[in-house]
Amino acid sequence: MKDIITLGIESSCDETSVAVVKNGREVLSNVINSQIKIHEKFGGVVPEIASRNHVGAISKVTKQALEEANISFDNIDNIACTYGPGLVGALLVGVSYAKALSYALNKPLTGTNHLEGHIAANYISHKDLKPPFLCLIISGGHTHLVHIKDYGKFEILGKTRDDAIGEAFDKVARVIGLGYPGGPKVDKLAKDGKPTIELPKTHIEGLDFSFSGVKTAIINLHHKNPEINKSDLCSSLEKYVTDILLQNAIKASKTIETKTIALAGGVSANSYIREKFIDLEKQGYKIYYPEPILCTDNAAMIASAGYYRYISGNVSDLTLNAIPNLKIS
Predict the structure, then answer these.
(1) Domain 131-290, CATH number (from 3.60.15.10, 3.30.420.40, 3.50.30.10, 3.40.50.720)
(2) Partners of 26 in beta bridges
(3) pTM for the full model?
């Protein structure tokens, strides 16, 4: 069987990334140009600045990805790009660039869902992982429990009704003076603390999540007592959200009768969350998670997801457009 080489392009937020992946699982290159330093002083991503930086970086990043993979455009079989969800201006840079390449090179174009990419990151890190399984997508913009029925076939079992878990981490970090991005900083500080601060419980029927209440509670605690132990605060936050993630993941796994759970998204790099999910293996669960570089936004995961779309015949045409609120289905 002929190897299929996919060029992946990711520009949904503040990382300009291009990757070359063989057969959906073998990464030949994965170049990531991060804008974190640019947006740090603003305390978060500024969409217009992100878009302009994508424009300036995308050609150079593509050239570097091809050089590191030691191939040329002639070797590419499929061009996969993120077309949603994400920031519309940022998405348009990657989509427009991918469409131009597809037209100029006469190569197939595969519009790819960013969340499918996060799921597919596990296929790169774990060659043995195959559907069906349960995936918990936890990131700055999403908190989803998804039943992966097959490659490209998904059912959402639960999702956040307000803030995503990563959004809660970022807002708490900003209020207590840790800065942006908040997730890694909360994780680091929590290691020095203990989960001794009681936080209000939010009860929701079913498998949905809510993190707005705990975020507001911590912000109020800090405002009332600026001298509160920040390490304990971060540790308490981590324990609170992890308990909820575990509770719903276990319920969902029983619902679909699986003991295979994959973590995905930027927050899946959180060391405490990983540790507690790995503990489930003592109960017979099999836990998967990507290596840290594949948890954050990157093009290798988009190339992997795009590969599975390509081999299933789900190819896009040049009318492909950015969809900032694109759902996974």
Answers:
(1) 3.30.420.40
(2) 22
(3) 0.94
